[in-house]
Every structure is written in structure tokens, then in C-alpha cells.
Specification:
Blueprint (H helix, E strand, L loop, with lengths): L1 H10 L6 E3 L2 H9 L4 E3 L5 H6 L7 E3 L5 H13 L5 E3 L1
Parallel strand pairs: 1-2, 3-4
């Protein structure tokens, strides 16, 4: 789901950055010319360290509902006021 969302937004001319917790997937997408970094959405340190200034929206394409909710809470706790899609 995340790769499809990435492609859709990139085709619309949006600046897109993907995160994935699987290093093999990061390597695959990077080789395809996509901007994808390693990051575990379930790791609170990830959200604490991200600079979200200038970010208008975040799509949480995680398979686990609890992980999506946890990430959404972490974004809001950091003060992110943009759109969060789950």
C-alpha cells in the first residue's frame, strides 16, 4: 500500500519521502530512484528526531492498526498539525 501511495503522489508532482523498517525494501526503492529512508514508525525516537517543518501530510501505511494509531499519536504529540492519513 505504501509503494502505491508513493507512486500516486509522485506522479501528481508532490514531494514524497518514504520510510520503511525493512532495509531490503529501502534498498529496492532507492534503486528505483525513490526517496526512501530507513525508519521504524513504532520507534518513538523516530518521531522525536524528525523535522516535520514544511510537511503538509503523512500517510501511515502500516499493516497493523495499533502501530498506525501509535504513530498518529506520536505525530500529534510532537505538534504536527498537518493531515494524517491512516
Amino acid at each position: 500500500m505504501g509503494a502505491a501511495a508513493y507512486r500516486f503522489l509522485a506522479e501528481k508532482g508532490e514531494g514524497v519521502l518514504g520510510l520503511d523498517s525493512d532495509p531490503a525494501k529501502v534498498e529496492y526503492h532507492t534503486a528505483k530512484g525513490r526517496r526512501v529512508l530507513y525508519g521504524d514508525a513504532e520507534d518513538p525516537a523516530l518521531w522525536e528526531g524528525l523535522d516535520l517543518s514544511g510537511i503538509r501530510g503523512v500517510l501511515l501505511c502500516l499493516p497493523d492498526l495499533e502501530a498506525r494509531l501509535s504513530a498518529a499519536r506520536a505525530l500529534r504529540a510532537k505538534g504536527f498539525a498537518g493531515v494524517v492519513g491512516r
